[in-house]
Amino acid sequence: MPGKTIATIYFYIISAASLALIVIGIFNAVNFLINSTQYDKYPLRYPQADCENSVYPYAKPITLDDVNGATRSAQDILDIKRQRQLCLNQQEEDRKQHKIDDLKNSITFTLVGLILFAIHFPLARKQSNS
Length: 130
Known about the structure:
Blueprint: H1 3-38, H2 64-68, H3 74-129
Helix pairs in contact: 1-3
């Protein structure tokens, strides 16, 4: 194969890969727009524990009072409220970070794809025409 053919194939392969990056970027942008506009809260990336119903993220040792059905102390109630609030705060931070990551990925993929395509496709056309 002559060098011109190899260069032409290279430029077309890079152009095709850049089109794939553009498609991925557009998909991420549409996904970001749908998640931003159609949900009350931005969806979490991975399913999280339910902050309202699960009290302890880790197993709590069972005491004799728990078995006998004793009422919870004021300290236990404060601990439960504090843990619930920490859980909700963590979920909100995860939502915010996921939203930023989605926006960043959509912009990055689209811009990198456009730049690569703008550089390589005209060169591929020039190589194949000459």
